[in-house]
Structure prediction request, 442 residues.
Amino acid sequence: MRITRTVAGRRRRAALVATTGLTATALLLTGCSDSDSSDSAGGSDANGKITLTVADFGQFGYKEAGLFAKYHELHPNITVKEDVTADEKVYYPKLLQQLNSGSGLADVQGLEVGRIKEVVDTKADQFADLSKVINVGDWVSWKEKQATTPDGKVIGAGTDIGPMSLCYNTDLFKKAGLPTDRKEVAAKLAGGWEDYLKLGEEYKKNAPKGTFFMDSASAMYNAVVSSNPKQYYDESGKPIYKDSPSVKQGWDLAAEAADKKLSQGLAQFSPPWNAALRKSTMATVVCPAWMAGQISVNAGDANKGKWNITTAPGTTAANWGGSFLGVPKSGKNVDEATKLVKWLTAPEQQAAVFKAIGSFPSNKLAYDLPDVKTAKLPYFNDAPIGEIYAGEAKSIPETVLGPKDGVIKDTISTQINNMEQRGTKPDDAWKAATTAIDKAIG
Prediction:
């Protein structure tokens, strides 16, 4: 991801965002000042040339937005090279091995939000403190807190976030006799995710043959849980997923969706999921900001204009996904790497990434820049995504994170997929999930 920013792995996709105002190049230039230039020779060659390495996963969008090339223009002595791992599940174990051995690390390392708590708790002393480098107040209030240690050290600068919305196929809605206007759809979902299932039952009554209301009950589950401050852990670090109200709500709704055959039961980002988008067999997809790119690429040009975006069900804002950039202390170019991270996560650069691939900024100063504020998605009937996502982002509650959030979420999602695809009974699926989770987290 990118565009996808989940522990399940980020896919390399692109979203076409229509904006007005300043060009991306002009924005890039405003994000740099003379104070960013460096005379440090740490790790440089005999000619004072420095190569900075950035290791990340999926698609962070820096290459697509031309940021590495632009940084070289602004700093001719510095070349940035990116090492991309397609799947975060492959990337993270390798990062832990490198941190444990103290070798093989890049100058800058990407950190997924589902892992950040574990890194803060167990590896913070191996990352440079960014608290004096970036102004944490520039980010949405809860973002930088996720990467902050109890004693105030900041080990990662926030890149993107995943404010929640709902993407829906207007062509299928119309055929099923449902409203297609985004405000009318939002009104139907005002009561929350329970209303979402009710709408699904309405859809099913007149659904075009071979189509389903949603792609995946596990995706809906993740959206439900993501809209709650308390999810898998409490403030003391104790796992509470077995008794968590948000987990129970999400699980029960997912079980209901599977039982009523409202879902096509497809694991997101799998080849069958991609094909279903192309064939228009699913009417809704839970849509964190980064998901629009997935839909537009996989559904293809033939489905342009058949999709729209509205706000997520209910009144509680939710976040699904997001990452950070950290600087390992063991690097030869820590000072220069820190400056690069500061620049990449500045509002102008985050706006440029949003314009290039649709990853929504975590730096709230970007929300008033033209490339964000006026952004629309032509593919989705010119949905005003800058307005929708910024509104959601500012009201997302602070979430209690745990060290194994990603493991717990992925394991539960797998069992929800089993309910959908294999007909596993909810009680059996829950038992399998909790057994696997307890074994994994100790």
Q: What stands out?
A: Residues 28 and 70 are 8 Å apart (CA to CA). The chain has a mean pLDDT of 89. Strands lie at 50-57, 78-85, 108-112, 157-169, 212-214, 282-288, 307-311, 319-326, 360-361. The two ends are 29 Å apart (CA to CA).
